[in-house]
Write a structure and sequence with these properties.
Length: about 600
């Protein structure tokens, strides 16, 4: 194998599994160490620089970082990364003075953002400090998009939304046009904007097409519309018996909201198996802890009604069967139909994009599914002045993906307005800094804590179910946050090897607790992986290979099982090993000042 090029940002970035998995590439270990040190405001600003909405995401993120967490490879549960983010937000104090300044003089460029959801707000956050005049349009009276409309207040208090949207909208540089729906892209382009960003989400719920649906329409509601009506106070009650159709997070929000609005007998019905549901595992767990059963492998067949008054639904029992190519089909079992009585049905079986306001001669081309044709890296459409992000770009995902799209689109818009090639992406900012403070002293805590994951406290269910505005999760207090933060394995503190200093004494090999270091003859990767002290079986994780040893051998380290404990560097008599903190910050139109380091 060729020696690993550690000057390339990707190798060590991929070793920091949590950051690599985060769409916005938040430097997770960096802010967790700050939380452990009680530097909550610093931790918040590291998050804000990257993911823009730490308080919101600390409560609602889908947590792609946690399944990737290295702690989950040595214990059952990963570090509670998401909930630690909330700790930083809850304890930060006043950080308004640490936000990047908005210049009083504009640069003469005007940008329009359609929709005031997370992707549009990220674009505005990134561009306003550069002197852009950003105009944000939304049909609602307040910013937030689906964050405000569809996430219930018992999961996300409104004051948190107001605060974090305010950091973007209330500091200057952003002009808001609330209560204004955009009905024509062509008309907006004619207003002379230098670029338009479409962050209008996926606003249309997928319909239920079964017999009886139209006749009983008064008590059958699309989930996302119903949640919005609940959030804005238009819906304050629901029937005693409620069926929620769907297996995603929207369905979980619907069923838990229904319990708080008077639903005594609330059931979730999904056509797939429980394990195949799209809802996050913790969302399913929270629903079931509130007494909501999840019934699976049931397909809606028809709606029962009495002269238009909803009385129930009929379902067909199905089972999963797989063909010779491993493709799954849901086939009827032949068992008797299942009848479930109900007073209301909430349909949460998916969301769709809707662009009736984009004229088909506006230069934006669409595919056969009605989605815009985009460059996946630049998010530029076939109209070079129009960019998309969030759910409007590739369909429904989650907040952190919308933020990531907003950052990339802001880079593209900045390049476009400066006359540069939009495809010429700037590199990330990376740094490697030694953590050595002495022979046996390090600037980070390298003790490997054996503690299991700490559980986030909740208010009692009997209290939670009485008020739809009472936040269910209480969050970690500072002491529990410290203990949970100590579970982090500091994956960003890398073992950096210098072959010219190595005397091949094998001291590092002997002391390594996971047998991840091997000195051996070089070879092809497939062969080399089998000849290590402990075979490297995770092909997704790259090997760290360095040559230049006096014997002609190579040093090979399996990055997959390394605990970053620093024992190799402590034991090395020549300093060939060093522990160096790797910090990567993804490219923004301009580096925002975190003022934290």
């Amino acid at each position: 194998m060729k020696p690993t090029d550690i000057s390339s940002p990707d190798h060590f970035h991929k070793v920091v599994d949590c950051q690599w998995a985060c769409p916005a590439h938040t430097p997770v270990p960096e802010y967790i160490r700050m939380i452990a040190a009680g530097r909550y405001a610093d931790a918040y600003m590291v998050n804000w620089h990257s993911n823009v909405f730490p308080g919101i995401l600390g409560r609602t993120c889908d947590r792609p970082c946690e399944p990737a967490c290295r702690r989950g490879r040595v214990e059952e549960e990963p570090v509670a990364i998401c909930r630690l983010k909330r700790v930083a937000a809850d304890n930060k104090g006043d950080v308004s003075g640490r936000m990047p300044p908005i210049p009083s003089e504009r640069n003469g460029k005007r940008i329009a953002c359609i929709g005031a959801g997370p992707s549009s707000l990220t674009v505005a956050r990134d561009l306003a400090p550069l002197g852009y005049e950003v105009h944000v349009y939304d049909a609602q009276a307040k910013a937030g998009g689906f964050i405000r409309q569809q996430i219930p207040r018992f999961r996300l208090p409104e004051e948190v939304i107001d605060e974090e949207c305010g950091y973007i909208l209330d500091r200057g540089g952003v002009v808001t046009h609330f209560n204004r729906r955009i009905d024509s892209l062509k008309e907006l382009l004619e207003e002379g904007y230098d670029a338009v960003f479409v962050g209008s989400g996926a606003p249309r719920g997928r319909e239920l097409d079964v017999p009886g649906r139209r006749e009983a329409a008064a008590n059958i509601h699309l989930g996302i519309d119903w949640l919005a009506s609940v959030s804005f106070g238009h819906v304050k009650s629901v029937g005693r018996r409620v069926i929620v159709l769907g297996g995603g997070n929207t369905a979980m929000d619907c069923c838990r909201s229904a319990r708080r609005l008077g639903g005594e007998d609330v059931k979730v019905v999904v056509r797939s198996g429980f394990e195949e549901m799209k809802a996050s595992p913790w969302e399913k767990e929270d629903a079931m802890q509130e007494g909501i059963p999840i019934l699976n492998f049931l397909v809606p067949k028809r709606v029962l009604h009495d002269d238009g008054r909803l009385t129930g639904m009929v379902f067909e029992k199905v089972a999963a069967q797989y063909d010779e190519k491993g493709r799954r089909n849901l086939l009827p079992t032949g068992e008797p139909e299942v009848v479930i009585e109900c007073d209301d049905v909430l349909v949460a079986i998916g969301q769709e994009n809707a662009f009736p306001w984009i004229e088909r001669d506006a230069g934006v081309e669409f595919d056969r599914w009605g989605m815009p044709k985009l460059d996946p890296k630049t998010l530029q459409s076939t109209n070079p002045k129009v960019f998309f992000g969030g759910d409007a770009a590739f369909g429904p995902k989650n907040i952190i993906w919308a933020v990531a799209h907003g950052h990339e689109a802001a880079v593209s818009i900045d390049l476009l307005c400066r006359g540069a090639a939009v495809a010429d992406r700037p590199p990330p900012d990376t740094r490697l800094a030694s953590q050595k403070m002495g022979i046996h002293e390090w600037a980070y805590d390298n003790a490997v804590s054996p503690d299991l994951r700490y559980k986030v406290p909740h208010i009692p269910p009997e209290k939670a179910l009485r008020d739809i505005t009472v936040e269910v999760e209480l969050g970690f207090d500072r002491e529990m946050a410290y203990l949970e933060a100590e579970r982090c394995l500091n994956c960003d503190v890398q073992t950096v090897f210098s072959a010219k200093l190595c005397i091949e004494c094998d001291a590092c090999v002997d002391i390594c607790p996971t047998d991840c270091i091997t000195f051996t003859d070089n070879g092809e990767e497939d062969d080399l992986r089998t000849r290590l002290k402990a075979p490297a079986v995770n092909l997704y994780q790259d090997l760290y290979v360095q040559d230049g040893l006096k014997t002609g051998r190579v040093m090979v380290k399996d990055e997959d099982v390394c605990l970053h404990c620093g024992m190799c560097a402590e034991r090395c008599p020549t300093g060939a090993w060093d522990m160096q903190k790797f910090l990567l910050e993804t490219a923004k139109p301009k580096a925002h000042a975190c003022h934290s380091r």
